[in-house]
Amino acid sequence: MVARNIFFGKLLFLLVVLLAISSVSLTQAKTASPLQVNITSVGYTDLDDDGLADDIFVTFTVDGLKESGATKIEIYLDITLPSGTLHKSLFYVVSNVEKLHLYIHAFNTATESGWYRLDLATVKYGDTVPVVAESSVIFDPPTGAGNGDPLYKIGTA
Ligand SMILES: [Ca+2]
Questions:
Q1: 111 contacts 81 by C-beta, under 8 angstroms
Q2: For residue 75, how far is its CA from the centre of ligand 1 (angstroms)?
Q3: Would you say 61 and 40 are in contact if contact means Cβ atoms under 8 Å apart?
Q4: How far apart are CA 52 and CA 130, in angstroms?
Q5: Which are the contacts of 43, defined by CB distance < 8 A and separation ≥ 6?
Q6: Fewer CB atoms near the end CB (10 Å): N or C, the chain?
């Protein structure tokens, strides 16, 4: 009788451990990956065919997006010129995928010689409070003068 109680005691302990392990794995499977924004390339070229390599491009990924349905994100792009001039832009994107590959073309923005700073921030509005992810890069476009006002274009990369 004592041996039988010990056997059932061990069996009950084993069941409790198995249930605990399965609940941990279920919890981990439901947890969304954290929001991340990663700049994959940045540079300049003549994107608007005006003969001047004064257009900045940036490609980047936004990961950790998937919520229960469509997820709204805001993308803030700040380009700081060597003189301190700041070009600010904001894009709204609605996504139903986990990871986006995007590009932004900033026309007529590489108008000074020296080092540029590019700051990219993403805000995700989902089921909970807004979440922010940021990434920055410093780079050196060419010397030269621009031709026209800054314009922007965004798309999937
Ligand atoms: Ca151009």
A1: yes
A2: 23
A3: yes
A4: 39
A5: 56, 57, 139, 141
A6: N
Residues 14, 6: Cα–Cα separation, whole Å: 12
For ligand 1, the distance from its centroid to the CA atom of residue 90, given in whole angstroms, is: 21
Q: Which residues does 86 contact at the CB level (< 8 Å), separation at least 6?
A: 78, 79, 80
The pTM of the full predicted model, rounded to 2 decimals, is 0.72
Residues 110 and 53: beta-carbon distance below 8 Å: yes
Q: If you write DSSP's letter for every residue of 95-134 in order, what string do you get? A: E-SSEEEEEEEEET---SSS-EEEEEEEEEESSSS-EEEE
Contact 77, 132 (CB under 8 A): no
Residue 155 CB burial class (10 angstroms; 0-12, 13-18, ≥19):
exposed
Q: What are phi and psi of 75, to 5 degrees?
A: -120, 120
Distance (Å, whole) CA 114 – CA 42:
15
Is the domain 33-156 a CATH 1.20.1440.230 member?
A: no
Q: How far is the CA of 110 from the centre of ligand 1 (A)?
A: 9
Compute the distance from residue 40 Cα to the ligand 1 centre, in Å.
Answer: 22
pLDDT digits 0-9 by tens, 26-80: 334 444 578 999 999 999 899 999 999 899 999 999 999 876 678 899 999 999 9
